[in-house]
């Protein structure tokens, strides 16, 4: 892993993506404020000043839950394989995944970064690979389940979106189902992985990148043997895997509920407001957020910035004025995404400092 995630080339690439992330974030905020002609900073500040602080606190707690529950999900899978995994380290794994997923296109950097810290903490590479692939499948399934329940219980949440957003949600659901199927095949069809490995070795020999094919075939055989032994345990460890699915559902609910809590916070103290309606609308926004996640996750932009922001505006407008929808979008994203990414960055930096002091081990 040191030659990939920990290399100088990888570090330079990470810095470039981090800088790009800042520019994209600034562009997303500008796009949201520009999309709402009636948005004003005075109205934004007024909503914050009149908000219910307890629900803003709940929004930040939900953001923390998003980080912690992913770590607990990975920990449940790893422990089902008989490998020790302290909660403290599992939170580092989660933070690495979330941070590098946020700053790289299509979240491609999250899994390698997470795997790097898992291996550095003493978890076998094959166990790490199987755990992350299976957890990705569960994470995808959890998001789809919440979205399906939303459409069944309250179909108007989906119908509130514009035609373009509806198409993105359907397309996103199809892509996520395809990805889930791919993950299942990767865990069950070991022979297919071996055939792919053999093909890559032959290609490597032809282009003279690989000079000792037998040594590579032996490494492939040994790696797949260990990989297969862990993958075969999944059906036999149902209780641990069920816990992992439960933690993934909680993680997704925490992510989606940030918008709900922020909405309740800015609406609850308004004069003459129907408090019951505020809570009902908050739940609808939680459902809308699940559909937004499905419709934007496959977009190859770090954090799906821009697309997610505009879909949030689209989903919020039926329940409030255009200006308030823009304000809520900025508040919710500030907590659920930007604050979360900053927190995960600090956790990753702290973990790297600890590793340096402890001779490159977590």
Condensed summary:
By secondary structure, this protein is mostly helical. The chain has helices spanning 8-35, 41-49, 53-80, 87-103, 110-120, 125-153, 156-159, 163-188, 190-206, 213-231, 238-267, 275-296, 307-316, 322-357.
The oligomerization state is: single chain
Number of domains: 1
Integer-rounded radius of gyration = 22 Å
Order of helices and strands: HHHHHHHHHHHHHH
- Percent helix range: over 70%
What profile does the largest beta sheet have? none
Q: Low-confidence stretches at least 5 residues in length (pLDDT < 50)?
A: none
Give the CA-based shape. Answer: elongated
Please provide the count of β strands: 0
Provide the structure class: mainly alpha
| Percent in strands | under 5%
How many helical elements? 14
Compute the average pLDDT: 86
Spatial gap, N to C terminus:
14 Å
How would you summarize the topology of this molecule?
Blueprint: H1 8-35, H2 41-49, H3 53-80, H4 87-103, H5 110-120, H6 125-153, H7 156-159, H8 163-188, H9 190-206, H10 213-231, H11 238-267, H12 275-296, H13 307-316, H14 322-357
């Amino acid at each position: 892993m040191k030659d990939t995630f920990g290399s100088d080339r990888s570090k330079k690439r990470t810095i470039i993506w981090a800088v790009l992330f800042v520019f994209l974030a600034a562009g997303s905020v500008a796009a949201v404020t520009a999309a709402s002609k009636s948005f004003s900073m005075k109205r934004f500040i007024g909503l914050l000043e009149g908000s219910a602080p307890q629900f803003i606190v709940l929004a930040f707690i939900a953001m923390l839950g998003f980080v912690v529950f992913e770590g607990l999900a990975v920990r449940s899978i790893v422990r089902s394989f008989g490998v020790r995994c302290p909660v403290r380290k599992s939170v580092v794994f989660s933070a690495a995944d979330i941070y590098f997923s946020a700053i790289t296109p299509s979240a491609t950097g999250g899994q390698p970064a997470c795997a790097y810290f898992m291996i550095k903490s003493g978890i076998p590479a094959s166990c790490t690979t199987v755990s992350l692939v299976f957890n990705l499948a569960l994470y995808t399934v959890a998001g789809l389940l919440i979205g399906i329940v939303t459409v069944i219980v309250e179909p108007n949440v989906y119908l509130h979106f514009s035609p373009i957003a509806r198409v993105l949600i359907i397309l996103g659901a199809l892509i996520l189902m395809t990805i889930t199927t791919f993950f299942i095949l990767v865990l069950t069809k070991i022979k297919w992985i071996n055939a792919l490995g053999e093909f890559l070795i032959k290609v490597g020999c032809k282009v003279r990148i690989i000079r000792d094919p037998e040594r590579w075939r032996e490494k492939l055989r040994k790696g797949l043997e260990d990989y297969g032994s862990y993958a075969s345990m999944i059906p036999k460890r149902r209780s641990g895997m069920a816990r992992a699915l439960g933690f993934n559902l909680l993680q997704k609910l925490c992510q989606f509920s940030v918008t709900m809590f922020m909405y309740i916070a800015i609406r609850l103290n308004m004069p003459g407001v129907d408090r019951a309606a505020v809570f009902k609308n908050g739940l609808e926004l939680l459902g809308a957020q699940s559909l937004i996640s499905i419709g934007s996750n496959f977009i190859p932009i770090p954090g799906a910035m821009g697309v997610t922001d505009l879909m949030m505006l689209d989903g919020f407008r039926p329940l409030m004025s255009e200006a308030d929808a823009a304000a809520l979008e900025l508040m919710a994203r500030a907590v659920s995404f930007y604050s979360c990414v900053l927190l995960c960055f600090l956790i990753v930096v702290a973990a790297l400092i600890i590793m340096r002091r402890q001779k490159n081990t977590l």
